[in-house]
Structures are given as C-alpha cells and as structure tokens.
Specification:
about 475 residues, six-stranded parallel sheet, about 20% strand, Amidohydro-rel, alpha/beta, TIM Barrel, five-stranded antiparallel sheet, Dihydroorotase family protein, binds zinc ion, Metal_Hydrolase, globular
Length: about 475
C-alpha cells in the first residue's frame, strides 16, 4: 500500500513519556506508526524534527463573528489566527453572527457563509435564548442536536443584542430541553441582578477607572450563578458546563459537585490564569475588559490548581475580538460602554505549554488532556479528533518546547490588534499545524493552505467526560 503522507520524527506523548516515531497517513487519517521507513511507499513528507507532537489542539469556545460582524473578525482571519496558534479545530458560538444561530435554518446560513473561509476544521455550538423559551420552541433544540451541534449555550446576563439572556426559570426550562438531547449545556455564569446593581451603583458614583468593571461584576455574582447551575443540573439531569470560569471558587464548587457524582464540567481561559484585574485593568483598561472579568492573583493560582486536579476540565479561549476605533475606543466610550471581549486563539497553546507544562504546573498527560482530548470527548468528537490513534484524523500540533519569544499584539492573523497578554515572555511555540495530514501552518512560511480547506465536523456521538479529581 502507498501512503499519502508521512510525518517523520514525531515525538508523541505516551502517558507522561514520549517516543519518536514516523506516522503514516492515508485518506487524511492516521494509518500506522513505524520506526523505519525502509520499503514504505509514500507521497508527501513532513518533518517534525523530533519536536513534541500533540494530537491536534482544540479550542471549543470561539466567537468568529461571521456572518454579520465581519468588521471584527471573519472565519478566514479567525481560523488563520487559530492555526498559527497551533489549533487544528475550533467550535464556534451561536450568538455572534447575523442571524444568531437558534435553529437549523440559521445554522445552515452560517455554515454556508463560512464554508469557503476556514483553514482548520470546525464544529458548532447550538443556540437557545430566553425569547425561544418563552415562545415554547422546544423543537429548535432537538433539530440542532440532530443536525450535529455539540452543545448549547445560554447567557444569564445580557451579552449580544440578537441573543437574549435567560431568566432563572427560563434557564431551568432550557436545562430540561437540552437534557433530553444528551449534549452539554454551557452557561455564561454571572447573576444578572447582582452585576446590574453594582454596575449602576458604580456609574452613579462616577467611577470610570478600569478596575471598576471587575469590582462591579463581582465574584459573588459568578459564584451564585454556578451554584444555581449546579442545582438545575442535579434536578434536571442536564450536563452542565461552565464556560470561561474566572474564579477559584468556581473550581471548588465544580470539584465538589463532581465528587457528588454530578455531570458538571468547566473550562477556563489563558487570561484568567495569567492576569489579575488590578494590574491588567489599570494598564489596559477596556482592552482587558471581558465578562466575567479578570479576578485576582489568588484566583490565577487556584485555577491552575483546578486544571491540575481536574475540577477545571480543559482550556478554551472565549476569543471575541472587537473593532478598536468603534467598539473599544469609540467617541465618548468609557469602561462601561466599551464592548467586552479580547482575542485569544493564537496564544492559548503557547501559554499552556510555557506556563503550564514547561513550568511544571501540568504533567505531559494533563497537557494533552486539557488542550485536546478532554474537549474532544466532552463534545462527542473523540476519537476522530483529540487522539493520536489509528483511524483518527491526522491532526497534529508540533511544538518547539525551547523556543523563546514574546507575545506581540500587532503580530497576529486576527483582525484585533490588541491583547492584554501583550509583552509576556514565553518558552515554547507551535511551529507546525497539520490538519488531516495537510500542513496548514508553518512557523517560517505562515498559512500554506487555501481558504476553505477547513471542514465542518458534526458531533460523532454522545460521550461524558470521566470525573477525575486528583488530590
Ligand atoms: Zn464566549
């Protein structure tokens, strides 16, 4: 048999050890592993040069803004930025497009608008809003799940005008509906009344400093929201997922709920591990404005610990870029009116490798889980994605663990040329990104595939993450 591609000298993880092998690829899938290429026929070859070769890394939380808000980001710029950051797969949110995705019709409209743009593969979140719940549109949940979305998103606080938040009773209904599909329901966990009260209070007091945003969107609001989510998960049997968890108390609540046997999971983002609100919101103001907000140094460390012990299941970015001139620094804009959101796909893998693995906070096997295997399992894409196994898609993230570099907010494929992580020095960088056996990104040459190479991937199955808490 002639193979299509050989990935030579790939250092693949085996638990916490590594082994160097040549990986044979046929029909875009992994077809075998050999230590000697003598007598093997193959077409193209890619050389991993002995670098760490992870199963393709996956960001399950992006807002690529397309179609509808393409002055912020397009699927081409967003997916190119992701590829340059070592990601082979993303999963896009239903809220930041026009129309927002709340049914198969809107989902197909979106897929059609982006199909000629993506350079890496993508899966989709489904949507359901307060408005849909009040209208009794239960069928939209089933139809999207049947179509292959991997999860559903609900917001407890207002976020995007075209995607209405849920009240508490509406969230309970949403949990009941989604529970019947078997896929997770991801919640933006902040208590609306608390956020609203303190934002208005601080505005009345005339505060316009950066940290005011974080103090108004207080940690108690996130705690109350997560607790309510856990209660609803327990009573309805829904698989609760806390997206972009920012606070250490969240990790403790999720860890305790896991120990009680509930199907609850969580993700955190690089900025919640690296930045605190006092420093970053003073320095970067609205360019570090996100929701939930940055917290404290103590939260940074508690979330690293959560990631290590399993109460935080995996990493994601919440990549949500905005236009500087009109949405971050528009005329008369202040910390309250600037749009909340920052880019992230290009720096996720580098930060977790540098600050997690290279600094000894995460083992190699945990690194593989939090960047690839765990989100792939959670969203029913494993082992097509998230695995270096025979029959899996030949997706690889090749990392030079020794490369030292500095994050520069201007050097990015994203349209958003701002980043509160600007200036942070890292050790370790993705140097090649391979999707289904094709080199997509090379550190020296940039993006080397045509727009539209990336494919939509439907959910393959229903799989629950194992509850593993390590103490
Ligand atoms: Zn988000």
């Amino acid at each position: 048999m002639k193979y299509d591609v050989v990935l030579k000298n790939a250092r693949i993880p085996q638990g916490n050890e590594t082994v160097v092998t040549h990986i044979l690829v046929k029909d875009e899938k992994i077809a075998g592993f050999v230590t000697d290429l003598e007598g093997i026929e193959y077409g193209r070859e890619i050389d991993a040069e002995g670098h760490l070769t992870l199963p393709g890394c996956f960001d399950s939380h992006t807002h690529f803004m397309d179609p509808g808000f393409t002055h912020r980001e397009t699927f081409l710029t967003g997916s190119s930025s992701a590829a340059a950051g070592g990601l082979t797969m993303i999963m896009d949110m239903p809220c930041c497009s026009k129309p927002s995705v709340r049914g198969v019709e809107e989902l197909e409209h979106k897929l059609n608008a982006i199909k000629d743009q993506a350079v890496i593969d993508y899966a989709m979140w489904g949507g359901v809003t307060g408005e849909d719940i009040r209208a009794g549109k239960k069928q939209i949940v089933k139809e999207q799940a049947d179509y292959g979305v991997c999860a559903f998103k609900v917001y407890m606080t207002p976020s995007v005008p075209t995607y209405e938040r849920v009240t508490d009773p509406e969230m309970l209904e949403a949990f009941r509906w989604v529970a019947e599909t078997g896929v997770p329901v991801g919640i933006h966990a902040e208590n609306f009344a608390m956020c609203d009260y303190f934002v208005k209070k601080f505005q009345k007091e005339g505060r316009t400093d950066g940290p005011a945003w974080a103090e108004a969107r207080c940690v108690e609001a996130e705690q109350a929201a997560i607790e309510l989510g856990i209660n609803f998960a327990e009573s309805t049997g829904a698989r609760l997922h806390i997206v972009h968890m920012s606070a250490g108390v969240g990790a403790r609540l999720i860890g305790a709920a896991k120990k009680r046997g509930l199907s609850v999971t969580s993700e955190t983002c690089p900025h919640y591990l690296m930045l605190n609100y006092q420093d970053a919101m003073t320095e970067h103001r609205q360019f570090a404005k996100i929701a939930p907000p940055l917290r404290t140094k103590k939260d940074n460390e508690e979330l690293w610990e959560g990631l290590r012990n399993g109460s935080v299941d995996f990493m994601a970015t919440d990549h949500a870029p905005y236009e500087i001139a009109t949405e971050k620094e528009g005329p008369g804009m202040d910390i309250w009116s600037a749009f909340p959101g920052i880019p992230g796909v290009e720096t996720l893998v580098p930060i977790v490798v540098s600050e997690g693995y290279n600094k000894g906070r995460l083992s190699l096997s945990r690194l593989v889980e939090v960047l690839s295997t765990a989100p792939a399992r959670q969203y029913g894409l494993y082992p097509k994605k998230g695995a270096t196994m025979i029959g899996s898609d030949a997706d690889f993230t090749i990392i030079d663990l020794e490369k030292e570099w500095t994050i520069d907010q201007k050097e990015t494929y994203s349209m958003a040329k701002y980043n509160p992580l600007h200036g942070i020095k890292l050790k370790g960088k993705p140097v090649k990104t391979i999707v289904r056996g094709t080199l997509v990104y090379d550190d020296k040459e940039g993006i080397v595939v045509e727009p539209g190479f990336g494919q939509f991937v439907r959910r393959q199955r229903i799989e629950k993450l194992e509850r593993t808490i390590t103490y």
